[in-house]
Predict the structure.
Amino acid sequence: MDARIPTGAEKLIQCLEREGVEHIFGLSGGAAIPLFDALVDSSIKLILVRHEQGAVHMADGYARATGRPGVALVTSGPGATNTVTGLLTAHMDSVPVVVLTGQCVSDMLGKDGFQEADVTGITYPVVKHSYLVRDANGIPRITREAFHIATTGRPGPVLIDLPKDITQGPCTAPFVDEINLPGYTIPGRGEPESISAAADLLSAARRPVLCIGHGTVIADGGKAAVTLAEKLGAPVVATLLGKGAVDENHPLHLGMLGMHGTAYANRAVAECDLLMAVGSRWDDRITGKLDEFCCDAVKIHIDIDPAEFNKMIRPDISIVGDARLVLEDLIPLVEPADTDAWLRRCETWRNKYPLKYARQGGLRTQHVIDRLNALTQGQAVIATDVGQHQMWAAQFCKVSANRHWISSGGAGTMGFGLPAAIGAQFACPNKKVWAIVGDGGFQMTQAELATAAIHDLRIKCLIINNNYLGMVRQWQELFFENRLSGVDLEGNPDFVKLAQAYGIKALRIRRPADIDRILAQAHEYDDGPCVVVAEVAKEDNVFPMIPAGAPMTGMIIEKPKHRLDKPTGST
Amino acid sequence: MSAASMIAPGTRSSDSKNMHTISVFVADEPGVLVRVAMVFSRRGYNIESLVVSPSARSGFSRMTITCSGDTSILEQMIKQLAKLVDVIRAVDHTDDNAYETEIALIKLQCDTDERSEILQIAEHFNAKVVDYGIESVVLRVYGSSEKMDAMISLLSIFKVAELVRSGKILMARGIKST
Ligand SMILES: Cc1ncc(C[n+]2csc(CCOP(=O)(O)OP(=O)(O)O)c2C)c(N)n1
Ligand SMILES: [Mg+2]
């Protein structure tokens, strides 16, 4: 390095290099030009996106696929506000993302300068932490802290707002390694007393269930969870975000629980005598009606964030700690109990209420996704968008490996799937990455097809085209007397032609007989992105379904003949 | 009806059962006040008073917050406060028997014939006259919030022109930390 004093922007980029950053997803503008300029001489690869929301979702997909932080870089004002949805998505799902925003010069702050926005102010509720840099010499410390905070404990997004005079001015401060954050503690091992109390309860249970949440994915605790489940003879259920931590093809795995979970997973949870949540925050789409949720079961809650205890559920035992470490500590302490009868009951439910769909009567989404699952064998990285296709993907994709399932859970952000898949593919160039998106959500971030195309990314994007905002149509059909309002996506483009306009290979599935051939063709295509458009039956519904706010006993397995009451739960 | 039984403006109107006093020890970083306040507003808590002051350790501040809201979520809200990166510690002192005090300045617009009664009340509450004008007096009083409420109630039959209360501050007794 030459002896010239670096600018704040140069120092920042050097700090990112020291953090091991290899990719930045971004889109420039006046206030961010110094930062983009510093990237010219950096080893970090800049991925130019078409919309800042896409940049944050790419960083998010990158992070979910690897556990490494994803980084987005945008300009001030509208560039920064375009990241808010991405921040919410990452915040709700505890994803380590670092968002760097350019800002107008410090002197203009608060004076409505051109493209000034109070970005830290706007984003407070959707970040784990944030900084407005006031002094260029703070850059090394702030960058170190930002990555530390984003990636440790319960991960989450961190935003750094960088006024242009700071990035352009000199930075003489040295790099920083130590962290000095007295208000920030990272739980590790759980408290031995609570662990041994939990072990006693687990050993005494006759109908135990382990509920695997995103915390298990993040802590890489799947292996420990399997060992524990096998030792206890306990069936396993996964939350939407917990999928893949434990191989869903494992005989003890009952699939996803919750609103659109499998009937057998929900049945097991409803009838268990002990439920242990491993890194799950009891989302309302899991519990349904709270005061009827597992009333008689003993509840154990393992979470790295103590603020999750007693929020939705009062557990009998709560253990603060890293999911993997807590599970590993539990394993030697539990005694195998006789759960044979319980496992047999769970198998009966599995056989009695299988996930099913008709293979005739037009092309069905379930059929397409079921075959995609047969093709990928749980080994591809699957990123989804939000809607009916997401729930069918969650039901039919049996994910075998950790971090191979990427979906927006807490925020339910339409437009997430395609950019998240792009981010995942940048992070895992040697893996097969499939995006499964709806025709509605796809159109919210479809411009990122260009990003995929120019980098010859091998992502495969399966567009489930039902010409509807299908999930909302389903609610209107079931709960609002089929008074369809604002759900018909007439005016959809021909998605095959659209992809071709980007120079992207595109295939279409029209008939059930085409499914395997076309999916295989896309799967094997390695020269760049491949879009597959499945023209599916327009009016189809996701079942099982527990209406929002209803207890698990209110589960609907197939379309009811009578009219249903409007759901009491919020969403 | 006696003056003391009326709820005077400037006294606490909400049911004192859901009143809580929380002490938050924070790093002196920009934005920390907003982050703390947002936890309260998001959980539907109403902040009645908030005192921010430098602490004995440089770089750290003390917030003493009196608030009202749903008691059943208090513990969880305090954990949400504690989770903020800039919050070192958040403690609920509601049933703690901590030493609490508050200071108030009360400006009364009054004629000469009302003064003697005002001064009697002031004396009773150990309040000091800090400004003596032709048409007004300013009283300074400190002590527990309840004492202050009582005094303000008594004075409310006069013309209270202005009232400024500092908000409650408190400190844990003995070697226990606040
Ligand atoms: C940004 C955003 N806007 C609105 C919604 C509400 N919403 C949830 S699912 C859905 C329909 C999604 O339609 P589509 O992408 O076509 O998927 P489908 O349900 O048809 O499979 C809508 C509008 C949302 N989740 N996100
Ligand atoms: Mg659709």
